[in-house]
Structures are given as C-alpha cells and as structure tokens.
Write a structure and sequence with these properties.
424 residues, alpha+beta, five-stranded antiparallel sheet, 12 strands
Length: 424
Amino acid sequence: MIKKLRRKFVITNMVFVTAVILAALITMCVSNYRRYYSDSMRAIEQTLSRNLEDLKPAIDFGKATGNRPQRPEDGGIGRISVFTVILDGFSDTVSAVNDSGIQIDTDTAQTAADAALSSGKTSGTIQDMALRFKIEKTDSETKIVFADITYEKDNMQSLLMLSVLIFVLVLLTSFFISVYLSRRALSPVQEAWDKQHQFVADASHELKTPLTVILANLDILKSHPENTIAEEKRWLDNTEEEAVRMKDLLQDLLFLAKEDAAAAPPAPHTPLNFSQVVWECILPFESVAYEQNTTMTEDIKDNTFVSGNEKQLKQLLMILLDNACKYAKNGEILITLEQKHEKAVLRVKNTGPLIPKEDLEHIFERFYRASKSRSRETGGYGLGLSIAQSIVHNHKGSIKASSTTQEGTVFTVSLPARKSPIEP
C-alpha cells in the first residue's frame, strides 16, 4: 500500500509540475511569437503609409543566390527588413520595387508577389520564403509590402529548442525530487503502517493466549461431566483469571483506540490536590512492596495543585507504581512530588533491572518490552506505559524515562501546576 501511495504521490506531483512548466513555456513562446508578429505587422503598416512617389523603380540586382543578403544599416524598422512590390493592376507583373530594408531582384519580387496573391488573403505569411505580407489594391495597381521574418523564425526556433531543453531538465529534476520527497513525506506513514501491523499482530497474540487457555479448560470440564463444580474449581478459577486478563487487555486497547481516533470526548478537568491523589494511590502498594521485600520511600510536597481528571491521573499513578513494584523486587522505590516553577514534577524511581539505552526511546510503544523480565509473567501486556503517555499528553504534560547505574530507572512526569485550587 505504501508503494502505491508513494507512486500516486510522485505521479500527482509530476502531473502538477508538468502542467505548470508547460503552461509557463507555452505562454512564453506564444508571447514572443505575438510580439514578433506585432513588430513585423507594424513595420508593414508603416511602409504602407508611405507615398507611392517615394518608391524607387524596379532594379534587377541579379538572381537570388539562395542566401538572403544583409540588410543595409539604415534600412528596415528595428530588426525587421521590409520591401515593397508594386504590381500592374492588369497584368500583376512587377512594375516597381522599393528595396528599403532588404535587397531583392525583380524575379524574386515577382515570385513573392505571386505567392502572396495565390494565397487569396490580404495578409499572411509565406513560410518557404520567410516573408510576411500585406496587400493593398487600387484600380490601377497592387501594392504588397513584405517583411523578412528570418530573424523571427531563427529566434523562435532557438526559443523552442531551449524550451524543450528546459522542460526535459525540469521534468527530470522534478522526478528525482518527487521520489526523494515521497520517501521523506511518507516515512512517518510507513512507520505508522509498520506499527499498526505490529500492533495487530501483538494484540492478536495476546488475545489468542487467554482464549486458548479458556477453550482448553472448557474441554477438560466437558470431559468430566460427572464431576461437581467443587471438583473442577481449579479449572473454573483459571478460566475466570484468563477472562479477567482478556477483559483488561480489551479495555486498554479500547482506551488507546479512542485516544488515537479522538472518538472519546475529553474528560472534564477540575482543580485537584495532586499531593493527596498521589498519597491515595501509594497506600495500596505499600502492602505489595512489603510482601516483595521492597523498600518504598516517599517525598511528597503538600498542596501541589494541578488541573486534571482525577480518574485518569490515578490510573497514571497506578501504572507507574505497578510498573515499579514489578521490577524492584528486593530493591528500593522512591516516589517524589514537588513543584518547580509552574510545573508539578512527579518522579517514580526503582532499582530494578536497567532498561538498555537503545530501548528507552521505544519504552512507550504499545506491546513493547525492553527485556525478558517484561514478559507475560509480570501480568502485563506492554500497554501500560502507552496509556500513561496518552494520559499525560491529555493533561498537556510530558513524561520521560531514564535508566542509569547511578540513578536506577526513573519515570518523570511534568504537569502544569496551579497555585491554588481556586485559581482560574
């Protein structure tokens, strides 16, 4: 799918670039052609406005050599060379040639005049002679003014060749840039796609395990229909345990799915005494720490206020404390809460197994386990820290993890603090 998306990205970009560059080049070529045409027609109109008495008699300069002679320095208008041919009104033969602007013999003048008359138009272009003309007729004679468009044709040809070269170069450059940008632009999509595949695979695996256990237990129960419930209690208890585990997993998945889709309405935030919330969450874990021979130390500053959802913040604390208890057996846990500037900073530190440095940046990913100790034996699915991160982000805070030999593993949560519960 990503390859198809990347291909569509490149094709769309190339179509857009092609359309823009073609429009620009066509506009430039048409604009130049119209300018050349306008200049030549203006030169013709100026020549037509001259008096017939100014025309010189026809002079045969010799047969054309096939090469257009250079125009005199004082002849023509701008870069355009012009000449006027007067035809007899009855025989259409050349009676006079005004060669001001370009040298031409009588035979060539007659050929040009015949071509202009045979076109049936009062103005037009003779392509094979590179001449543009306009005819003005009277009862006694016909006056035809010709403008040399060799310069125009040469420049238009050069412009077209240059336009083709620019078009090809821009197209090739745009193609390689589009391919590069498609990889850069779609790399987050590729990463999200890979994570989604991994998420589905992990979720399927985690759901498959309790379902397999439940089905196996049911098969055992069905194989002993004569036994009482008391006799099969251990299978029923095991089935209930797996069902509860599956329910918890589905609830976690539903929470994360709602957060991703923004389907759930934002939980209401109210002023809270965060210090009190932390103490309420610590109390249930003191007995757990005692049973695990874990030393739990607290340094909670009183009257640290935040604005948030109490239920979600308690869930956040339960996740962090549960995570610390799982990996700090026979070790130490330190929980601190203080207000620094405008932030309420909560730290949960434990002396359990360290998290490798390369795993720290992935620790909040779903189903991610940094070590073998983060296994099914701990009772988790690798979703807790993802949920904790979502809760912190919902409260416009930040969460990070560090793991060093000197400090141990530390999870730090920063939330916007309030000065008092009634602060607006």
